[in-house]
């Protein structure tokens, strides 16, 4: 007969599977397996299980994607009658966010979901929670020490660049001496480096394409406009642009309009509603965007609930949830825009 392990034992035990489980399995309506060798599925959204209080600490929602993260977390928690969400105000100041996490630890929440403003700087906060017996779901920006979290949920930054590069490559594969430029995020972020590396690796498959310029912006409208204007001034002609972030893409499109430029393909990043509106209307050089889904916050709530209830995932044999889950970065263009339009964030 199975027994419920201690919370500390559950956190630092050896169980767990690799990435790739479908989060929808957390809310499966299929009945639990009768086989004692398989883990119990988390109850469905309309079924009430053990009451779980989930603490949620993230950075300041000063960006469309970060605001969407908070919205996704709140909406998901509301779907569960057995979940109480304790969400902090959010701060980009490391000391402030550490203090907010300390408060949630002192409240003895059942599970913590943390999207750190700086993964390395917040690692000790994650470790403190885990050592206090509170499992941590590390969201998006990964801690420097895997012992600081029970489960990691995030986007595929390398895959995002890879998919953007392959999409552009296929569009330009018959273009002789094609030129591509890149408007990246801040070079201080590891995610930016991963996105650029994926993009460059994809372009290596196309011998006719050369990346001729790159500028780093700051994920803001203003920086996107400024850096794009510099790129346009330096490059009198090119065939495609990949922009890492749809918020800064708003500024990039303004710079393009002001310069009266066209004749090239622009691919965005993240999946903002503004980008999807342009793709749907086909009224700008922006023809596609590569998703970095804020739905990862909803998935984090699913996993946190399962952790708090001591459940695994339906459809998997293991008794524990995975240690990591990496979301896929789909490319959205006019061929599939209707499918993804509802996920566009403001």
TrEMBL record:
It comes from the Bacteria. This is Sugar ABC transporter substrate-binding protein. One of its GO terms (molecular function) is carbohydrate binding. PROSITE patterns: PROKAR_LIPOPROTEIN (PS51257), TAT (PS51318). Transmembrane segments: none annotated. Belongs to the bacterial solute-binding protein 2 family. GO terms for cellular component: cell envelope. Its main location: other. Residues 54-311 form the Periplasmic binding protein domain. Keywords: Signal. It is found in: Cell envelope. InterPro entries: Peripla_BP_I, SBP_2_dom, TAT_signal.
